[in-house]
Design goal:
Keywords: Coiled coil. The chain is mainly alpha-helical. Helices cover 65% and strands 4% of the residues. Strands 5-6-7 form a three-stranded mixed β-sheet, with no helix packed on it. It has a two-stranded antiparallel sheet with strand order 1-2. Helix 1 packs antiparallel against helix 2, helix 11 packs parallel to helix 14 and helix 19 runs parallel beside helix 22. The N and C termini lie far apart (83 Å).
Amino acid sequence: MTTDLGALTTAAEQWDGMAGEFAEQEKAYRRDVHGISMGTGWAGLSADAANRRFDITLQQFQYAQTEAKAVAALLRDAHTQFVELRGRLKSARQDAVDAGMKVSESGRVSFDIERLPEESRRAVRQDPGYLEAVQSWQERIDKAVRDVTDADTGVRIALQAVVTDSGVTVGGKGFNGEAKGDIEKYEGEAAEKALERLRKGERLSDKELAELERTFRDNGDDPEFSRTLLAGLGAEGTIRLTNELNDLIHVWGDGRVDHYTKIETGLAHALASATRDTGSPWYEGWREDMREAGVARYGTDAQGARLDKAVGYQSLVTLMQKGDGYAPDMLGDLTDDMIAAEKKDPGIWRLKHEYNGERGGWFANDPVDGMLGLMSRNPAAAADYLSSEEHMKYLMKERDWEVTLHEREGMKVTTYTRGVDGDSRVGFGAALQAAATGIDPSDENARYVEHTEQNEAVLKSALTTLAGQGDDFPPSLREPMANILVNHGDTVHTAMSEVAVARSPLDQTDLFEVTKQISKDQDAYGTLNGGLNQAMVTDFHADTRPDSTESLVRAGRTVGFLEEARTQAQGDPEVAEFAAKPLIDEAISYIPVVSDKAQQGFDYVTGMWLEDEQKRIDNQRVESNIEVAESRNRQLMALVDEWKEAREGEFDGAYDAQNTIDTAAGRGEAKGRDVSGVEPK
């Protein structure tokens, strides 16, 4: 903390001065020795031998300048890094002190209890939360210290490498004519050499593995480091290294799995930073190389156990799933390249046996679906990609999702039948959800965001294409579509309750078919119905005109629309009655934040709806024979109560309100039958 970092810049100036002196020596040598000796007056074998020596000496003067300038640049780079990192460490320490902590000279954090009055000291000692606070600050201080140590190691590696002559001209004992002034490039080269050994099957020592972890930790987000590393490995080498790491992690599973996992994660982050500038020549070259390496087949222990080989793009996506922060254009480019590959070679991804669940789900056997899953982490990128009619049409209607060869054992021979994997379209469903909602499905803390035109376009496109599939609606898309409809709850509620077809914001026929298909899955059914309860209650609180029952009528029609969709779904002989009432997580991430009163109303109405659902199950009756007035009576009456509550007692006709919503529910059912073309029974 007290080291004079200015000594680094002083040393850098001295190295620049040394480069200048070598330049003067080069000039003098060229004039007084090289220029004279290389004249025409001396010929023969001895002259040739001498001239070669004179050339080498002149070259060494030039190389000496290159090396000296590179050392100066490295020292300045080191100064910049150390100043920034020391500043972060000082800032972290001061923040800890300001938060009531005490930080020792060795970096140990403790609660500064002496700064508190006596009565507060006793309370703090009895509060376990203060230990968590101390630990949190200790972790921040430790990270700041580790960052300085990591940078220091990187500088040492660079300074050792910059003065190493890798040429053969003077037997490796001369100046370094290829010296570079970038610390990260030297760290990238060192990492690439170690990883190349690992790729070839060599086992690195614990010290070497720890050094690789440090290198990635310190430089993973630096494009120069990452490009140097990946250029050294090459596209094919990157894939082979990934395969080797995954064999070590998932097949052999020795005591160093944690090391290999961290290295693979570091490699994924390096890939993200190297490809961030998708307009660079480096990126174009890497992508072109990957087009070739990505469709080649590679022997691995993991796939070899299944008498199979991995395809390059499958391994690449397996690697990418360990990282994040990929450029949107890179995600789109690679997805397009993989689609082009499977169009050219149908069945290219097809492997024996399933790859899903805890044991096999780590491997991206469907790389297109895997890329879409990665895209879902960037909702804007997903919306941009899936708002393309061409992309949506291909993924929804044209693509062959059967990437698995399911084993069938017969009496004498084992056969394989193509089919979908257990996690088919999981990535697509996540991307579709992100594209339509603007929310990353994997973000547990995500909240509703305002929709863009692209979000709305994806919603309408998804409705149209999925409705057209009828009962071929992919089961894995039911839950994502339920989340999407809940997220657009206001629009969906308006469409379900609209009397004039031409005024509906969504095609009612498409909406009904998708709602019916969603209703075949218990969790998706619960998400959709529970979420739309909030849309209806919010509408009550937004429209409090004392002389209007529009919001009440709309609520009834939406309930009826939903009920008819459920009735038709349960009429499918392949759909069993739900064995338990739906579990509602309130789809918190996907619905807009509302007022406390509206939230209370939502909770109340949803509670009554769940009681209706329990009643269905207890009675075990056939849905098509139950009138909506009975099967959803509690929900309808609760909606009436909440509608009246929103008017703060200005409406006294309880019976009229109940009759209004009951009648509207029947009309909503009729609307559902009408748009679906099903005749009433």
